[in-house]
Amino acid sequence: MKTLEYLDFHVAGEPFRLITSGFPEIIGSTMEEKRRYAAEHLDDLRRLTILEPRGHDDMYGGFLTPPVNEESDLGVVFIHGTGMSTMCGHGAIAMGRAACELGILTLKEGMNTVTLDAPSGSVQLAVRAEDGKICDIALKNDLSFAYALGKSVQTPSYGTVRVDVGYGGAFMVFADIGQFGIELEKKNIQVMLDIAMECGRCAIDQLEMVHPDNPGLNAKDNGICMILFAEEGEREGVISTRTFTVFGKRQFDRSPTGTGTSALATVFYEKGRLQEGKRLENRGISGIPFTVTIERTEGGQVIPTIHSRACLMGKGCLLIEEDDPLQDGFSVKGGEEVKI
Predict the structure, then answer these.
(1) DSSP labels for 131-200?
(2) Which of 88, 100, 199, 202 is catalytic?
(3) Would you say residue 44 has pLDDT above 80?
């Protein structure tokens, strides 16, 4: 019988299952090399740990790895229902809590720091403790920028759709939901999935989305997140928004999406709406917000910091019997093969 040890978290309602042991070494001198190696050699374990019957299509997770940089504390290869992503904001926040649970970080009162190596690069996490408990985890995501604003995407069902594109560790395409005549509410989830899938596929086909410093990080090879958003106004220096993030084969994020909120902050900055000293408060379908602040570097780069928490839900072993007919997991998404 095979065993895989794991920790289960949720961050603003979005699950994150970290596989901590029981899998082969993931080879690579960089985290991107490790991601590509894992995609080639460990995809069966991704399916087993994330999909039914041990998980579900919309789960997210990761394989724990040693860091690749001397100054870092731990590494992760992010996994989800249809593949392995370059970055996951809520997953990175969960990794801050995991560092404490695994003894990699000895939690002290006040501010603690963790450096995480991910395929998109290294990120800093600030874990704040009060009375011995974690009260905030802040993800400093220095890889975010507005990529393109006010682009037109032609779609078969919705005509011309105006979108903005940001990068927060992966490419994020934003469309104001007001263009589609519906509200961003739970009752409209299936309609929003239809909109996001079609608009996302058209955006990948029609817009060139390639990281300026790393051509390997591009939309055609790695996919995108298609994000429908609604702005709810601004009050006392806080801009309030709601988002619905879709990825893969109709998977959607219950949280506001850390990478997506990072990218959204840079889009608002580029439009002159968000500056240092102001905050963006973004809610996903769960209703639990991510709060983001930005700082501008001397070189003009905008660095967003996402604030949230990670709740530990479970820990243990996944057991795989030799005669289990569902060792590869299965999806309930049907026969749809197209993904974004």
Answers:
(1) TTEEEEEEEE-TT-EEEEEEEEEEETTTEEEEEEEEESSSEEEEEEGGGGT---SGGGHHHHHHHHHHHH
(2) 88
(3) yes
